[in-house]
Known about the structure:
The complex is a heterodimer.
Chain A: H1 10-30, E1 33-37, E2 48-55, E3 62-67, E4 84-89, E5 94-96, E6 98-101, E7 104-106, E8 117-124, E9 127-134, E10 142-150, E11 159-167, E12 175-182, E13 185-186, E14 188-189, E15 201-202, E16 207-210, E17 218-222, E18 232-240, H2 242-255, E19 274-288
Parallel strand pairs in A: 2-19
Antiparallel strand pairs in A: 2-3, 3-7, 4-5, 4-8, 6-7, 8-9, 10-11, 11-17, 12-13, 12-16, 12-18, 14-15, 18-19
Chain B: H1 3-23, H2 29-60, E1 66-74, E2 85-88, E3 93-96, E4 102-107, E5 110-117, E6 124-130, E7 134-135, E8 138-140, H3 159-162, E9 168-172, H4 173-178, H5 188-192, E10 198-199, E11 208-209, E12 217-221, E13 224-225, E14 230-231, E15 236-237, E16 244-250, E17 264-270, E18 279-284, E19 288-297, E20 302-311, H6 313-317, H7 323-326, E21 329-343, E22 347-362, E23 366-382, E24 387-404, E25 414-434, E26 437-457, E27 466-467, E28 471-485, E29 490-504, E30 507-512, E31 518-524, E32 529-545, E33 550-561, E34 563-566, E35 577-580, E36 588-601, E37 606-623, E38 639-655, E39 660-675, E40 683-685, E41 692-701, E42 706-715, E43 719-720, E44 723-729, E45 732-737, E46 743-744, E47 748-761, E48 765-774, E49 784-790, E50 793-803, E51 808-817
Parallel strand pairs in B: 1-7, 1-8, 12-17
Antiparallel strand pairs in B: 1-4, 2-3, 2-5, 5-6, 9-16, 10-11, 12-13, 14-15, 16-17, 18-19, 18-51, 19-20, 20-21, 21-22, 22-23, 23-24, 24-25, 25-26, 26-27, 26-28, 28-29, 29-32, 30-31, 32-33, 33-36, 34-35, 36-37, 37-38, 38-39, 39-40, 39-41, 41-42, 42-47, 43-46, 44-45, 47-48, 48-51, 49-50
Amino acid sequence: MSKPITTEPIFGKMRKAYIILSIIVSAALLQGCEKVITLDFNDAEPKLVVEAIISDGPGPYTVQLNESAGFYESNVFPAREGATVRIMDDLGNEETLIEVSPGIYQTINLQGELGRTYTLLIESEDEIYTATSTMPSVVVPVDTLVIEYIPENLFQDEGLYCYAYATDPAGIANYYRYNMFVNGAPYITYPENSTDPLDGKEDDNFYLSDDKYFDGNQIDIEFPNLLLIGDTVDIELHNLDKGTYDYYRTLVEAIYGGGVAPANPISNFGDSALGYFGAISIQSRQMVVE
Amino acid sequence: MSPNLVYKQHRWVYAFLQMEQSNGKRSSPIALFKYLCSKIKRFMLRILILFISFFIANLSFAQEKFTLSGYIQDAVDGEELIGSTVFFKELASGGSANVYGFYSVTVPSGTYAVEFRFLGYETLSKTIILDKSQKLNIELTPSSTTLTEVVVSSKVQDANVRSTQMSVNTLETKDLNAIPVILGEKDVIKTIQLLPGIKSSEGGGGFFVRGGSADQNLILLDEAPVYNASHLLGFFSVFNSDAIKDLTIYKGHIPAEYGGRASSVLDIKMNDGNSKRTNVSAGIGLISSRATIEGPIVKGKGSWIISGRRTYLDLFLKLSNNADINKSQLYFYDLNAKANYRIGKNDRIFLSGYFGRDKFGFSDVFGFDWGNLTGTARWNHLFSDKLFLNSTFLVSDYNYNVEIFGDEGQDNGFNITSSIRDYSLKEDFSYYLNPSNTIKFGANGIYHTFVPGEFVPGAQSGLNELILQEKYAWETAAYVSDDISFSDKVKASAGLRYSLFSQIGPGDIKTYDADGDIASSTRYIKGDVVKTYGGLEPRLGLTFLLEKESSIKASYGRNRQYLHLISNSTTGTPIDLWIPSSNNVKPQIADQIALGYFRNFKENAYETSLEIYYKDMKNQVDYRTGAELVFNEDVESQLLFGKGWSYGAELYVKKNIGDLTGWVSYTWAKTERKFDGVDYGEKYAASWDRRHDLSIVGIYQLNKKWTLSGAFVYRTGNAITYPIGKYEVDDQVAFRYGKRNADRLPDYHRLDLGATKQIKNTDRYESSLSFSLYNAYGRKNAWIINFREDPDDASKTQAVKVSLFTFVPSITYSIKFK
């Protein structure tokens, strides 16, 4: 079995090496310490947040509209109600979504198709927001899933891990996101000595990669989550266009506090709204750990 | 006041009024300042022209004169005394020794009382009958009152006031010894950050000079550029202080012989070695040990030195029970070697080299190492007693190597390498026309090779090999400069440099559109010129001596920079990438003007200076939002270009003599940038912009055995970007950001204490014990601030300050055999 390489960009590995180096240096001589502090933030006016995905899978597709909140407020994000939400494709088809619950808008008949370009148009509180995304025209299926026993090593505890295999189409740039669901939900990691659901941390499923290092080869994706016998594993492989990939890549930085000059993710709404509208191709495969 | 001067003053007022009117609105003080700066620049250029004509006149009036020349050395160890002076009493003028200890003074024939001086050494007086040109090599004896020379940076009395150079600081290794530093690792880079106008970063190797970015500093080790001066994530520099003779940092008015970076030159010279007898010295510290051996090559003809140090943090890792950890490596080492030899009276050769590396390996999983190599071969030749030539060939290389090992018995790992390599040839002439006029001229060429990245996977890895295109460039320059005294009161130093840079093939050269997408690609074959840039770099410094011990100085300088550092962090990492100027990336240009008042008190016991400056920077580099900078063939498409400017005032008070020595330096400064691609072209603070920066350094000689020292620093926090809110997507809370660098880290302050006890000082050896305490009152300065979910309440988010280094004690034992 090969090393866990493709679940993260190669340089993630280097970054990991670097983080470990930092930790050793800290432990050995820096006595680095953390302290929670209270800062005086310049909280801005609430802004519209859009979460919208259309895929080649069956509908309905959901567009969720919320508002942003201040840094020290609770993680309660008000729904944006009463908006007019439409999705159009490049053939001139158009569908107006229905608000099924506050801030949640759904399609009725629309079926996403490979290679189509979709435009999302939102009218809310006297503003118009638009974003366009193209669904990749190539389907990249998950060929096989394999469960493997791995002994304890630097990066992993001993136990059962899931590997997914797919074949990257040669000669074109492809961008992927891999999602893992265990027993129908994102994987939950518990801190040591705790199984309290409140302590658990859901896997963010931000496993992203482009095919720069493996164009045309078999992709092998190792998921870092420890599995138990009897678990049902669902692996989704999302094929993204470059814009959507760049959005997720920069979103990860915005979630985990990013870089020298932190900024909002690259969005197809520009600076008018936060969030993204993505047209993506999704393939999945399921198996039970035995 | 002469009528002419009055008229000129009126013209200034007139020009100022005219500007106010023509704009039709009131200008901001900054706009006015900028305007004045442009006027001063023009004024300076006029003086330059005047100056050249003066110089030509000077040449034609040259009459019969004789030359006194030779070398000035330390009588004990034979080291050249750089900057020592030769003073002709009857003429009240003289000259000074260059960096090779060579001096040359041409005066009318006669009998003179000549004094050879160097601060901290006995002055040597000689009566010289100069009826023909003659060579005279001088050895000066260190003065017995060594207690007072703990901190000495001005080598010659009033040198700071009288010289035409401003915006410059010099340190000798003995300055470094007393100042407390983290873990007792004496460090030139950390020490210069206590000087005015030089901003530091804790936990980073980079430094910032007068608003310039970290890549705008040319760091030279025996004339070879050092491309990455950091060890161990920037906590230490690559310069082993045992191997360093002295260093000079030019923050403005950079002499014309230097070029290639926009903001500063840090010129570091290695020790030449003891030419009188063989010496061994060593030191043992908490994290590293070092040893130096030096001695003569045929006594009096030459000398050699080898100096090394190695850290042994990884020895502690060996104590771990964990098999992964105790199989790991984490260390760095430095090796400096130098030799010089005199061939006959007129020739001398120097060979010097540096090799240093960081090695980090984690078990059998991965290895990561990086380091510099520099080599310098020099040949000093005297064509005559007035014309001195230094020819230099040098090589400099920086590279890193990452290896991810495969599984046992399988070839499925991979390897990543990247490097930059320079080969360079330089010719530097000095012509000592007469005591009031020294001319320097020369030329150099550098061939740069850039290897941005090579990714080589094992055969069984399932990954493809990826080799980023190598890049090549020629950088050449020619210069002439002249140090001239118009009168006892007015001196100038003018230089003109012309630099030329060509990006050359082979390669597929691309252009990019406004979004950073590829617009076109053209194939060039080997040797084809893709793009050439070049231009003049005028430099001018003026000194007006006022009454005794004080002067006013003004300077202007333009610098062009053809290489750019692409980095994911402001402070530098081992995987930072140097890229050449190209069809997409224009050279950076910096223009700086500075004005200063210099005053010494009590016969040089106190040196003070106040300088103000304004710097304008063009074609500055920043990055697109979400830029992919690492291992990207199209990294140039990720860049944004804009302008920057900085201005400030620097106050410096230094006490040279007495039991208590040291300095206070305070800088007020502002650094801003403006990029079309950042916040829609609004100006923003550079991350290294800091309003206040204060350093206080004190060294107290308690008695013959004990020396105590302390250093206090206070500075405004760096400009950073805090969240302006949060939102939820993908079931995750993401932070929302507003304008770049609109916020500030909390203020930074810290006190370091040190004490050195001399244990033994006999004829055979001397030994000492040094103690230091870094961050003595345990201030928890913010290194970074992280934003995250509250671990105790998932419905809240919190800000977390991460601090480094509170109370770091150290002890070092040093011994020197005589």
